[in-house]
Amino acid sequence: xxxxxxxxxxxxxxxxxxxxxxxxxxxxxxxxxxxxxxxxxxxxxxxxxxxxxxxxxxxxxxxxxxxxxxxxxxxxxxxxxxxxxxxxxxxxxxxxxxxxxxxxxxxxxxxxxxxxxxxxxxxxxxxxxxxxxxxxxxxxxxxxxxxx
Amino acid sequence: xxxxxxxxxxxxxxxxxxxxxxxxxxxxxxxxxxxxxxxxxxxxxxxxxxxxxxxxxxxxxxxxxxxxxxxxxxxxx
Lengths: 148, 77
Fold this sequence. Notes:
The complex is a heterodimer.
Chain A: E1 4-8, H1 14-24, E2 30-37, E3 44-51, H2 53-70, E4 75-81, E5 83-85, E6 90-98, H3 101-118, E7 121-127, E8 130-133, H4 138-145
Parallel strand pairs in A: 1-4
Antiparallel strand pairs in A: 2-6, 3-5, 3-7, 4-6, 7-8
Helix pairs in contact in A: 2-3, 3-4
Chain B: E1 2-6, H1 9-14, E2 18-21, E3 24-25, H2 26-31, H3 35-42, E4 47-50, E5 53-55, E6 61-62, E7 67-71
Parallel strand pairs in B: 1-7
Antiparallel strand pairs in B: 1-2, 3-6, 4-5, 4-7
Keywords (chain A): Molybdenum cofactor biosynthesis
Pfam families (chain A): MoaE
EC number (chain A): 2.8.1.12
């Protein structure tokens, strides 16, 4: 299996995580990764992600299992931040390693769509010193339909 | 005592992330809360988890030590 799924409450270094993941899968011919970061925006000062301990990480682990059973992968990496982040800070890193590239592309894409729409995170933004909760976007659900 | 946990915007509405309540039927527990909060908790889009497991039935009876979490729609990572 060789899956690496973590919920992080402090900043992480995506380049170092990707280096370690790639080194752990030398027989993979391709590694595809996606990095999500806090958008640099004139108005938004900070982003906070809240999680619920009993559900959030178990849900991410279950997702990794589904991704792994759906594509021929050497391994999958899913790292997700919780807590307060500043613009340009990494939020999420997903990587998939496989013999051939198509499995990795599809697996990383699928994992991101499901993380965005289904994982147990609640998000709020700080603008002008005021925090505001972000409601789900219809696009996040529409993205899931691509996989049915 | 039992514990209610509020996530996302429900935290702001409740004014706290957790609340200790007397055990008993959920209906009775909700009746003891601020009406605006109770109404928000009854929203069908709000999922509930009893001791870490999602449940569909709101007819739950809370026992001492139970943790009931109210989970509004997630807003993506």
